[in-house]
Design a protein that fits this description.
About 30% of the residues lie in helices and about 20% in strands. It has about 140 residues and is of the alpha+beta class. α2 packs across α3. The protein binds adenosine monophosphate (AMP).
Length: about 140
């Protein structure tokens, strides 16, 4: 059985404004912001504004809204970082690698021959993340 949604997860705190994020995009249903431990330049996360642990308990409206924003962000990061492609990944439950239990989709620009960086646990420089968020917002026309 899937565990219940925990309203004190870190992305719920970001949604409530209790902790900061480098915001890239927001609409009525979704928020996109920079991953603080990016596996590549431009690594962005897209989340629904309403509670869901992952796709196993999300409803179709949440999934639709998240994927529409994922597409928007994927196009923007490709332009902003002049990447060869865009990697989209998403984990469901700890056994599959999920560490934050609010539904999120990773959107990462990729270049041929350049591997993703491993998760080191080290936070990226805040000024660099702010600069990357600004680049993506600019590609979104915001
Ligand atoms: P996962 O649950 O494995 O899909 O990954 C959760 C992701 O959230 C990781 O890539 C973390 O680097 C990222 N992360 C954790 N805390 C924050 C935070 N406060 N702001 C932005 N990203 C975060």
């Amino acid at each position: 059985m899937t565990a219940a949604y925990d309203p004190n997860n870190i992305f719920a705190k970001i949604l409530r404004g209790e902790i900061p994020c480098h915001k890239v995009y927001e609409d009525e249903d979704t928020l996109a912001f920079m991953d603080v431990m990016p596996q590549g330049d431009g690594h962005t996360l897209v989340i629904p504004k309403t509670p869901a642990r992952n796709i196993l308990d999300a409803n179709p409206a949440q999934l639709n809204a998240v994927m529409a924003t994922v597409q928007r962000i994927a196009k923007a990061v490709k332009v902003a970082f002049q990447s060869d492609g865009v990697f989209v990944m998403q984990f469901n439950e700890a056994g599959a690698g999920q560490t934050v239990f609010h539904l999120h989709v990773h959107v990462v620009p990729r270049w041929e021959g350049i591997a993703l960086k491993p998760h080191t646990g080290a936070m990226a420089d805040g000024a660099l993340l702010a600069d990357h968020a600004a680049k993506i917002r600019s590609a979104l026309g915001q």
